[in-house]
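Input sequence (397 aa), recorded before submission:
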Amino acid sequence: MTKPFRSFVAVLAAAAVLSAVTVPASAAPARGALLSATPVETLSLDATRAQLAASPFGADHVRHGVNAYRLEYRTIDGRGRPTTASGLVALPDGGPHVLPTVAYLHGTRVGKRAVASVDAHNADRPAAYTFAAAGYATVAPDYLGLGTGPGFHPYLDSATETSASVDMLRAARSFARRQAKALDPKVRVTGFSQGGQAAMVLGRALRSGVDGRFALGALAPVSGPYDVLGAELPGVFDGSVSPGAAVFYLSYWTVAMNRAHHIYSNPAEVFKAPYASTIEKLFDGSTDDDVIAKTLPAKPSDLFTDAYLSRLRHPSGGLLEAAHASDGACDWRPPVPVPLYAGTADTDVPVANSVHCQRDLRAEGARARVLNVGHKDHFGTAFTAIPRIVDQFDRGQ
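Predicted structure, token format:
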């Protein structure tokens, strides 16, 4: 059993201990319990077609109008303690009683409100609508600490991505019943960037039987950072990750992971002046992603200390633990074929991540292949892949 999977099991075990304690029901609500459902948007068939035609995903798959809601629900944090989270559910207008189900996992977001359940201009909302308009009940968790959830977001932490996503599926099932609908238990899982990695770990949890009322029906991750130690960190130094992307993702990951793993005691051990005094505030969820990108310097050597750059080349201690908490997404055997959508011009999450994931999946006996969408950059990969994934799911793959 790999270290990331042990971490995930530990979270589930902590939750089991909590549920075994005899306390009033109001003090120990069930994981996945639906707390609220707030209408976000109601679109007719024509309005859905117009909105998606103006999006990067296009309107070729529009067969229904869309009704979207923000759900708030019970889940657990990284220590197994009760907390809440939010996410978007987008349902097709009409369709059968039992709706085919898609879990869509979003990419990197820093701003707390910069998620599809809150921000109407967020690109993940039309991505979710693309599946809903094609007839799928689409469940898009915000993860911990984003949307309306409390606290900080544990960025790229496999265990909490999994627990928040599984509990969102549970809440969505309850909500669908209120709408006189049911969710197909065979969940088609997809996601982009951070969501590609999250899709893999959610798929693993469903495959392991984390909730007997759901199963893994299909898996289609896009441009995920599946291999922090073997592809993403080396890419910072060999040029396959662009300097700007390295600065943004690595600083976010370092600050977020330090809350659970001891990477530094003082930010000045990792970040140069003047950034050391402001970096933790910058990544507390109150600042939008585009503002952060303009605030940070252009290249890693201007942001990180020489000592930290040396540690990144040879991680150990808390830094190595943090990398393990993000890695290991591909060390299992999915029961379905796994196309790993990737673009060859992606300098945020280089294609080596997908190549390594394919290698690891095949070593477990899985049917996996890197599906090259062409010479696309990071976001261009998603814009190209998602309509193709609708086709894949329509074919029952």
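Checked by second reader. Residues 1-26 have pLDDT under 50 and may be disordered.
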